[in-house]
Design goal:
InterPro entries: KR_dom, NAD(P)-bd_dom_sf, SDR_fam. This is SDR family NAD(P)-dependent oxidoreductase. Belongs to the short-chain dehydrogenases/reductases (SDR) family. It comes from Isoalcanivorax beigongshangi. The protein has 253 residues and is α/β, with parallel strands linked by helices. 43% of the residues lie in helices and 17% in strands. Strand 1, helix 1 and strand 2 form a beta-alpha-beta unit. The protein has a single domain, classed as Rossmann fold (3-Layer(aba) Sandwich), CATH 3.40.50.720. Strands 3-2-1-4-5-6-7 form a seven-stranded parallel beta sheet, sandwiched between helices. It is globular.
Length: 253
């Protein structure tokens, strides 16, 4: 299926880092299809570099520094998009708090709340703003990035799993309410390690050693994952996928 792209159409990626990560790969994939892209993330240096790398002209990829768990930041992002005269056709919530293992007995209330705010609360904020912009056109794609913890809570990952499970439930509720109104809401479970900059720098370099130990086919390639997101966006509404799980063929499940 192909899609006709208007100059006003745009994609929004919440949780963009470097080009080598999933957020950067998503921005590059949407840009390649002719969409204007808003690359939103916490690190100005990273997202501005990613924007220049994807679009040296600076005309079609806009870097926006924001905190997804802050209502004012989320509202300001979508207000800016509207002020630019653009319409979000696909919005991806890809932000997440790092899933560091910790015993439940040693997890502080502050840590529990922070993980929930970054993964679940922020997803709700982004979903609300995206839906408000998509409903007048009765079309659009809203995608949430999940994880293995969306489905099962491992020992020492209670905070992360509870937040990701909450995000999955939010996505289901949004799909059931707004799917009949023309909005495609999807939840993608990333069941494995994405071979990007963030994973490589995890634990002072141990992440890179882990990726090497997995081999070329032991982790998810960001561009391959981004292609799956794009195909979700292209799906005809008579055959929408709500939940998609992606993993390397070596990954057990």
């Amino acid at each position: 299926m192909t899609q006709t792209v208007s100059p006003r159409d745009c994609a929004v990626v919440i949780g963009t880092g470097t080009r080598s990560g999933l957020g950067g790969a998503l921005c590059a994939r949407f840009h390649a299809q002719g969409l204007a892209v808003y690359a939103a993330g916490r690190s100005r240096e990273k997202i501005e570099h990613t924007a220049r790398e994807i679009d040296p002209s600076g005309q079609r990829v806009t870097a926006v520094v924001m905190e997804a768990a802050e209502p004012a930041d989320v509202s300001a992002l979508f207000a800016r998009i509207a002020a630019d005269g653009r319409i979000p056709k696909v919005v991806v919530f890809n932000a997440a708090e790092r899933n560091i293992p910790m015993s439940m007995l040693n997890t502080t209330p502050e840590q529990l709340e922070q993980v929930w705010r970054s993964n679940c609360f922020a997803g709700a904020l982004v979903g609300q703003e995206a839906l408000r912009r998509m409903l007048p056109q009765a079309e659009g794609t809203l995608i949430f990035t999940g994880a293995s913890g969306s489905l099962r809570g491992r020992a020492r990952f209670a905070a992360f799993a509870s937040a990701k499970a909450g995000l999955r439930a939010l996505a289901q509720s949004m799909a059931r309410e707004f799917g009949p109104k023309g909005i495609h809401v999807a939840h993608v479970i990333i069941d494995g390690v994405v071979n990007g900059d963030r994973a490589g720098k995890f634990a002072a370099g141990l992440g890179k050693a882990y990726l090497i130990s997995r081999g070329n086919d032991g982790s998810l390639h960001p561009d391959a994952v981004a292609e799956s997101y794009w195909q979700l966006h292209l799906q005809h509404r008579s055959a929408w996928t709500h939940e998609l799980d992606l993993r390397p063929f070596k990954e057990s499940f």
